[in-house]
Structure formats: C-alpha cells, structure tokens
Amino acid sequence: MNTVLITGCSSGFGLDIARHFLDQGWKVVATMRTPDESVLPASQNLRILPLDVRSDESVRKAIEAAGPIDVLVNNAGIGWLNALEGTPMDIARDIFETNTIGTMRVMRAVLPQFRERRSGTIVNVSSSVTLMPLPLLSVYTASKAAVNAFTESVALELEPFGIAARIVLPGQAPETSFGKNAFARIQGAGGFPEAYADFTNGVVARMREAGGPLTSSSDVAGAVWRAATDPSCPMRLPAGADSVVLADR
C-alpha cells in the first residue's frame, strides 16, 4: 500500500487532497501546524502529525515520525492580497518562508529516502496567478512563481534518481478559507494603503463579482492525484476550469 505525506491539511485544498487519497485506499500522513483529529474521518490508514514548514526541527521530526513515504504533496501556503506599498517586509518574508522556502525545506527532508530507493514523486501546489499578471497579488505571485521555476529545475536534478517532481496550479476557489484568511491578514497588517483606496476597492469588487468558471477543492484533489500517480502527467497541471482557461491562453 502506497503512502502520501501532505502538508497543510487543516482546511481547504489539503483537507480534500487527504480525503481523496484515503478514498483511493492509500495510507495518508496528514500534517498541519496544530493537529486536529476531528477534520478527517478516523481510519487505520490515516496519521495526523504536527508540521510547521517554517521550522527545520518541526519538519525533521514529522518526516522521521512518518517513516517511508512514496509521495510528498507540498500544499501548505498562505495567501496575500495587497499593493506592494501595503505589504510590510515581515509579511513578505513570511509569505516566502511558508510558500517557497517551506516547500524546499520539506523536499530536502524527504529526498534522502527517495534517492536511496530511487523512486518517489513530489507534487508542489502552486497557483494559477502565475499564469497571468493580476493586481494586488505581486508578492504572493512571486512566491508561487519561484515554486514553479524551482520545481522545473530541481526535477532535472532528481530524474537520474528515479524521482519525479510536478506542479499543480489551482484556480480561484472561493469556497475555501484561503481567501478569507488572506483578508484577515491584510486587516491585521493595517489594511490597504490609503493612496490606493480607489484602485484596491475596484479590484476587490471585481473579484467578488466575477462570474465564469471557478475551481473547487475536489478539482485540486483530482489534479494532485493525477500528478502523483500518472507517469504521463505534464510538469505543470492546471486544476479547475478557470486555471485551464488561463493555461490555454
């Protein structure tokens, strides 16, 4: 029976990814900063472990406790929506530390066992915002664009060891807590800059009123499953109808 370790499973995409792999009969190591046994149904194939991708020690302990795994899904991340002038540098560093460096940190911890076995698959969850420039997302986009470029480059290093690395690009998923958490962080950091008030109000209103196809958590779970199990899967895999539209532009 195959085993997958998934980061950021307390809600949103990570939670549905964990459910999907459990439904497919896999063993799942679901990790989150603050473990909550109630978010997933009890199963003999499920383990919930603490893991903070920003901490070397936390990552080391989680990977040791998890034991051998076949697939790593780097899903943990934080959102941010603001102009560059409205983004304190400590927030920018936290975004990169979680979204970009956190991905690298967990991969480094897992790679020795994959390399020794000469097998393993890594799926890094990025974002469709990297496919088309959008306002107020410059810092967040930069953190995810770095994940894209890093994954494509490191995949070349890992191929000789039989290790695959792929990217899933989710679109906009309003039913998740991701966007709500981003807005809460913005308010906690002082809100949008006054000089950008008219611009930011217009952008946020258009985002909330936008119609057309969007992305569900199940879209993302299905895409991650394909990236993890289908050898013919492309390096970059859009997840959700809106992401597919952007990828086809």
Beta-strand portion reads 5-15%
CATH superfamily: NAD(P)-binding Rossmann-like Domain
- Which secondary-structure class do the elements indicate? alpha/beta
The portion of residues assigned to helices is: 40-55%
Structure overview:
It is built from 8 helices and 7 strands. A 7-stranded parallel beta sheet has the order 3-2-1-4-5-6-7, with helices on both faces. It is globular and about 55 Å long. The longest helix is centred in the middle third of the chain and has 29 residues, at 89-117. It has 249 residues and is of the alpha/beta class. The relative contact order is 0.15.
Q: Could you outline the blueprint of secondary structure elements for this entry?
A:
Elements (H helix, E strand, L loop, with lengths): L2 E4 L5 H12 L3 E6 L13 E5 L5 H11 L4 E4 L14 H29 L2 E6 L12 H21 L4 E8 L7 H11 L8 H13 L7 H13 L6 E4 L1 H7 L2
Parallel strand pairs: 1-2, 1-4, 2-3, 4-5, 5-6, 6-7
Helix pairs in contact: 1-7, 2-3, 3-4
List the defining traits of the structure above:
249 residues; globular; Rossmann fold; seven-stranded parallel beta sheet; alpha/beta; 8 helices; single chain; 7 strands
Summarize the model shown.
The protein has 249 residues and is of the alpha/beta class. Helix content is 47%, strand content 15%. The protein has 8 helices and 7 strands; from the N terminus they run E-H-E-E-H-E-H-E-H-E-H-H-H-E-H.
